[in-house]
Design brief:
- This protein is mainly alpha-helical.
- The protein contains three helices and three strands; from the N terminus they run H-H-H-E-E-E.
- It has one domain.
- The chain has a three-stranded antiparallel β-sheet with strand order 1-2-3.
- The model has no long low-confidence stretch (mean pLDDT 94).
Length: 107
């Protein structure tokens, strides 16, 4: 499913309003979350190679590193039918049905 500019803008707005994450970091989160989503899809279709597993671990650590200084937490989900990366912000704001955090849209 393609992500629209509107979804990306809504994500950036929610992050700006409810955290101290910068615009540059939001863009980086969008790119990294797309990688997590792609690898989750591959994992559902077939077994990941060692290289892909290491890539997934590295990308998740990069996301955690971006969010840690802002007192935010990443929540990862392996099911590619939903949002694979959610950001738990300090004030508790959510935009998902499970009330886990702010969904990071992926393309």
């Amino acid at each position: 499913m393609a992500v629209t500019s509107k979804e990306k803008m809504e994500f950036a707005y929610a992050m700006a309003r409810h955290s101290t994450v910068t615009q540059h970091e939001c863009l980086r989160l969008l790119r990294l979350a797309a990688t997590v989503q792609r690898l989750a899809t591959e994992a559902c279709n077939r077994e990941l190679t060692e290289r892909e597993v290491r890539k997934d671990e590295k990308v998740q650590m990069d996301i955690i590193a971006i969010l840690a200084p802002h007192d935010c937490e990443a929540k990862f989900q392996g099911d590619p039918r939903g949002c694979c990366v959610k950001v738990k912000v300090p004030d508790g704001y959510t935009n998902d049905w499970g009330r886990e955090g702010i969904c990071v849209p992926t393309s």
